[in-house]
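As the work plan foresaw, the team has encoded backbone shapes as discrete tokens. One protein thus recorded appears below exactly as we store it.

:::
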Amino acid sequence: MLFGKKPGYDPDYDLKLEESLAENKYPAEKMAAARAAEHTSLCAQVCTPEVWDKYKDVVSSGPAKWTLARAINTGVMYPDSFVGCHAGDRESYDDFKDFFYPVIEKYHTGFSMKEGSPPQGTPSERMDPARITVDLSDSAKGKIASTRIRIARNLSMFPLNPGGSRESREQVAGLMAKVYARIPADSDLAGEFFLHTDISEAKRQELIDDHFLFRGKDRMQAASGYHQHWPHGRGVYLNRAKTFINWVNEGDHLRIISMEMGGDVKAVFERLSAGAKVIEEGVKAITGIDEAFMMHPKFGAVTCCPSNIGTGMRGSVHIMVPKLIKTIGFEAIDRLCRDRNCQARGTTGEHSEVLDRIDVSNWRRIGLPEYELVEDMIRCANFLADEEDKL
């Protein structure tokens, strides 16, 4: 066994299509039940019988040869999924536009695929920390335990991972190993790349204990195809200070992460910006391809899940608000955050238990430069800190 993976089909990692979808038939009963449920996935809302009939025999024009059946498998298998669909290549979003465009517009409220476009400016301008005009209040700074900002990026020369193969994942990891090797040894970003298939048991446990190692076993991600061929092609890059982390092929090709204890948001964002630039330039230099990251002319960065497209950015802080949690509860706090273009998550992330702190992050992903999304998060953290102080 390799990291607990058993011979034969393993539901923690391997892809299984829902029975109707496996026969390229519309799962009418399951979709009707999903639409009638209290929490209806965007997939079930949009994939009507009419949409299905239009696309059921269509194959994407990109390298994944994606189908609508594969795209909606997560939402059919798990109707409690909020989004419930995934793309297999960049072309999927346009080839199945009467499905994906409405999903995008429903998730990214206020954004129109007809009228919208990605924010203007170069990546360096959009991720320039000097453009942040909002500061954390002294009260918020004193309550923030840690800051973490990440972006999702996919390499333009490969299919998205749900539509990829073991070979494509290993090629992504091989390319990234060369990119990381180019980082100067005296750089703050310099570190080491660990492949899941190569690390020792002791190193594996160290990475788990430090919460740096992703391990799959997410039922919704497995249904999308994220975990296929596990653990081949997966890896984690860490700089020496463990403040710059890259997840390779966890879901998207890259999760570029900057993090540190405390509330120095601008420093975290500055490191993220510098790291993303180094990676983009490295990929261009090695491949000779000018467009390193996969982009779409309407919404920007292409990701596997429609929820992340645009910037692929989540800027978050863990903020201590125990009195607010006790007084109004997590759901009320989340509503307050949503009113301010942010969301609240549990103490250790999405769907986790709420203790003395919450994770506050930007909700908007699209149509705005990354620095403005950081400002969303700062304003929300300031508001929550003020509310905590009133109690």
